[in-house]
Amino acid sequence: MQEKLRAMPKEHQPLTPKGPDPKWRYMWRVGPRPSKTRFQELNSEPVIPEGFPEWKETMDSWGYKMISAIEAVAEMAAIGFGLPKDAFTSLMKQGPHLLAPTGSDLKRYGQEGTVFAGYHYDLNFLTIHGRSRFPGLNIWLRNGQKIEVKVPIGCLLIQTGKQIEWLTAGECTAGMHEVVVTKRTINAIKLASEQNRSLWRVSSTLFAHIASDAVLKPLGHFAESPLAIKYPSICTGEFVEQELSVINLKGNKGES
Question: Which segments show compositional bias classed as Basic and acidic residues (predicted)?
Answer without folding.
Answer: 1-13
